[in-house]
UniProtKB/TrEMBL annotation:
Region (Disordered): 636-681
Entries under PANTHER family matching the protein: VESICLE PROTEIN SORTING-ASSOCIATED (PTHR11679)
Family: Belongs to the STXBP/unc-18/SEC1 family.
Protein name: Sec1 family domain-containing protein MIP3
Phylogenetic placement of the source organism: Eukaryota, Viridiplantae, Streptophyta, Embryophyta, Tracheophyta
GO biological process annotation, one example: vesicle-mediated transport
SUPFAM superfamilies, alphabetized: Sec1/munc18-like (SM) proteins
Bias (Acidic residues): 646-658
Source superkingdom: Eukaryota
Bias-annotated ranges (Basic and acidic residues): 636-645
Length: 840
């Protein structure tokens, strides 16, 4: 039986709604944009007959004119696809309907099921959420139409322009207006479920959209075992099934259930971690006897808490995929006004839309590009597209003296990574994510060379076999982009090569390598003594403080300072060091892994670094103190810069005829100055005490991180915990998922792994078991398909290691899928652990 391909499944789901998409304007929100971009769904929408595919958040009345299928009649139906709960996307959908007044049919597809809407206590919708929302949307649209007509009459302007001007992004407030159909007569609204809004990086690896309701929902409530709103709590075993589970767990369970239904999978559910057990229980309770009777393919679902392994996403491993997503800027998030779920905040996760700076690379050598006519073609197209707001007579094409125009067309060439582009049937992202940095960059280089041979283009560049550098990749990219036809035919490999070259840039690679070296040293020190590890952490903090001071003094960044770590970076390494210390020295100190003296040196290093540069890192534990610390630092600098009078300077007071009369005044001035200095000294002392209290709270949070191995029940026995020592990997040993999959495929016992019996399984166990007809507990390795889902997120290194574990097991017949809440980078982990969503 063919293996499951999540990208193809996503595209097939879109084909199933062809009758709704045909002749409609399709609006997609930010989460759907991330999903369809990676799945390659935009050409499919046009193939199915969509008039246009537009952004829901940035919608405009001109979207109706963007008809890619050359329809001469006006569009009378729209399709809205959202990855949010309906009440969060309501204001955008109402705005869309109010703008396109000629629309008679509106079809809404949401990835959030009716059960998810009714399961959230804060949701205003009940069990029949879709039908309820259809009525509410039409009702609000009627009210808004009445208000728009009234404003049109009062202002004496046309109804259409008045509706646009009066429309705001705020929720519509109900007023005493007639609820008759009015202008909405004939409007039909229907809401349907579309579960497969996922972001497939490869056919076997996916995450949820970062701007969707499931990924944004909190995974933990604030208590002694919690670390962050965006991470599951520590698995101490104290979280019972009767506790109120966070909204993120409920939404995740409903998503996985609907995903299994869509793919026709019968899940055997296993969980590792407290929150995963709650998700598994919700999934099991949602199953029914009806599901068993259907012909489905058996699959194993392994749920894993992210907090069982925090060190892997915090480290800078040997993964080209992780380097790219850490180096490239991300698209800006739309301002989220999602409602609080059970009083918990929404997590602002970074967008998955990585912006590839292709235009910058081509703009570094613009003369050859200009001669090719490419800039003129690009700018002429977009100038014509923007003719509604531009005067055609004032639209000038690119010339050498117009720097603004050069910047404009260069920015227009910037694009995003797309998961469906392939070379001879091999998807680019899939081949890259399965390789380490060196092998992946060399593979990209080979693809570029093959593309150049097909286009009969020769490039004079020094090439070193077995290696790939930014200059040679950049030279090949420019050569392939000299003609419009070559650029369009090879756009997939050009975009990926530009992303690879950006990650190999000296500034980016030097910092990544510095992180890797520091993590390697911490890993080696963790296998020695706690004193050596504490000294390494203190040294990193001190060096980072000195480097930031030097960078602050120099207006232009010095090339010699490239690759040096900032104080924020040193704090991330401190997190890694404390986790390693907790795994190797769990009983060194009374409250943490280090002795009192070792931790005292660490505390003093952090305090000194903050005093010297208070604004470094924009840290949460300094909230409310940063301005005072900056004021103190500026005052000390101003005092140091005061010029002291020289010895040969003439003393004016010495020439005074009557100095005796000023003695009293001088004494008063000196007394006032002394009092002022005393007040400043007292304020400084109080400020330092407050700062030390903040650092103490930071250290207590680090103690909690160091206790992960002893407090997480599945890690106490040590078979799943990482082993210290130098292993040749820059970021330490293999991650938890590698060790877990290796044990699963080897049929080894996994401590803490819980199996969730289905309804029929519990029936056999409780009823027929007494007659000797008990059902044997299934095993993950017996399943032909295994889905590993990490609640909290995954990174590229883990995808690579999981595939390595399958290859090493000698079980090519097993189809292993890996998914997660979101894609994690080390910067994301810093924000979750020490940023605004942290619980310290």
């Amino acid at each position: 039986m063919a293996l499951i391909d999540v990208a193809i499944s996503c595209l097939n789901s879109i084909r199933e709604i062809e009758e709704h998409v045909k002749d409609a304007i399709v609006y997609i929100d930010a989460g759907c944009t991330e999903s369809f971009q990676l799945a390659g769904a935009f050409p499919l929408f046009l193939e199915l007959g969509a008039r246009a595919v537009c952004s829901l958040e940035n919608m405009t009345s001109l979207d109706a004119a963007a008809d890619w299928n050359s329809k001469f009649d006006c569009a009378n139906k729209i399709v809205i696809m959202t990855s949010r709960v309906l009440n969060d996307a309501h204001r955008y959908m109402l705005r869309c309907l109010s703008t396109h007044e000629g629309v008679h049919s509106c079809t809404v597809f949401t990835s959030i099921s009716e059960g998810s809407h009714s399961a959230c206590p804060d949701s205003p919708l009940g069990p029949d959420a879709y039908r309820e929302y259809e009525t509410l949307l039409v009702q609000d649209y009627n009210e808004h139409t009445k208000k728009s007509e009234k404003l049109s009459k009062d202002k004496g302007v046309s109804k259409f322009s008045s509706a646009l001007e009066s429309l705001t992004m705020e929720p519509i407030i109900n007023e005493n207006v007639d609820n008759s159909l009015g202008g909405a007569e004939g409007l039909v609204v229907s809401v349907h479920h579309f579960p497969l809004i996922i972001c497939p990086f490869t056919p076997r690896a996916f995450v949820l959209p970062s701007q969707g309701s499931v990924a944004e929902a909190s995974l933990s409530r604030q208590h002694e075992d919690s670390l962050s709103f965006g991470l599951p709590p520590i698995s101490t075993g104290s979280m019972s099934d009767t506790d109120d589970v966070p909204p993120g767990a409920t939404l995740t369970a409903h998503f996985l259930y609907q995903l299994a239904l869509k793919m026709e999978l019968k899940l055997e559910i296993f969980s590792l971690g407290d929150l995963s057990k709650n998700v598994g229980k919700i999934l099991t309770d949602m199953s029914s006897l009806y599901d068993v009777g259907r012909r489905k393919r058996s699959a194993g679902l392994l749920l894993v808490d992210r907090t069982l392994d925090l060190i892997t996403p915090c480290c800078h491993g040997d993964s080209l995929f992780d380097r790219i997503f850490s180096s490239l800027p991300r698209a800006e998030r739309f301002s989220s006004q999602a409602q609080l779920r059970q009083g918990l905040p929404s997590i602002d996760r970074p967008s998955l839309d990585a912006q590839v700076p292709l235009g910058e690379m081509l703009n570094e050598e613009p003369s050859k590009i200009r001669d090719s006519g490419l800039p003129q073609g690009v700018e002429a197209f977009f100038s014509g597209w923007d003719s509604y707001t531009s005067d055609p007579q004032n639209v000038g094409l690119l010339n050498e003296s117009d720097k603004k125009s050069t910047t404009k067309w260069a920015e227009l060439l910037n694009g995003s990574l797309v998961g469906t582009e392939c070379f001879r049937g091999t998807p680019y992202l899939e081949a890259m994510i399965d390789r380490r940095t060196k092998d992946g960059s060399v593979l990209v280089k080979k693809w570029l060379q093959e593309a150049l041979r097909r286009e009969n283009i020769s490039v004079n560049v020094r090439s070193r076999p077995g290696y790939a550098t930014k200059p040679e990749l950049q030279a090949m990219i420019r050569a392939l982009s000299q003609s419009q036809s070559s650029l369009l035919k090879n756009k997939g490999i050009i975009q990926l090569a530009a992303a690879t070259a950006a990650s190999l840039d000296e500034s980016q690679s030097a910092k990544w390598d510095a992180f890797s070296s520091a993590e390697m040293m911490l890993n080696v020190s963790a296998g020695d003594t706690s004193q050596g590890l504490a000294a390494q952490i203190s040294d990193l903090i001190n060096k980072s403080a000195v480097a930031e001071l030097q960078a602050k003094k120099n207006e232009k960044p010095d090339s010699s300072l490239r690759g040096l770590l900032s104080f924020r970076d040193a704090l991330l390494l401190t997190i890694v060091g404390y986790i390693l210390a907790g795994e190797n020295f769990p009983t060194s100190g009374s409250g943490g892994p280090f002795s009192w003296q070792e931790e005292h040196f660490l505390k003093e290093a952090i305090v000194d670094a903050v005093l010297e540069n208070p604004s470094a890192g924009n840290l949460k534990f300094l909230n409310g103190l940063t301005e005072e610390l900056e004021g103190r630092l500026n005052r000390l600098k101003s005092e140091d810069n005061k010029e002291t009078p020289s010895d040969d300077q003439l003393d004016i007071d010495a020439l005074d005829d009557d100095p005796w009369g000023k003695w009293g005044e001088e004494e008063e001035e000196e007394e006032d100055a002394d009092n002022s200095k005393a007040d400043e000294s007292y304020d400084d002392m109080q400020l330092k005490l407050d700062l030390r209290d903040r650092v103490d709270s930071l250290l207590r949070f680090l103690h909690k991180l160091s206790s992960l191995r002893t407090r997480n029940l599945p890690l106490r026995e040590g078979s799943l915990a990482s082993e210290s020592g130098f292993s040749g990997d820059a970021s330490g040993n293999k991650g938890l998922l590698y060790r877990l999959i290796t044990k699963v495929l080897s049929k080894d016992e996994i401590p803490g792994l819980e199996y969730h019996s289905s309804t029929v399984g519990r029936l056999f166990k409780s009823g027929f078991g007494r007659f000797g007809l008990g059902q044997a507990k299934p095993s993950l390795v017996d399943q032909s398909v295994i889905l590993v889902f990490v609640i909290g997120g995954i990174n590229g290194r883990e995808v690579l290691e999981v595939q390595e574990a399958v290859s090493e097991s000698g079980r090519p017949d097993i189809g292993l899928l890996i998914g997660g809440t979101t894609l994690l980078t080390p910067d994301d982990m810093f924000e979750l652990l020490l940023g605004q969503f942290s619980h310290f």
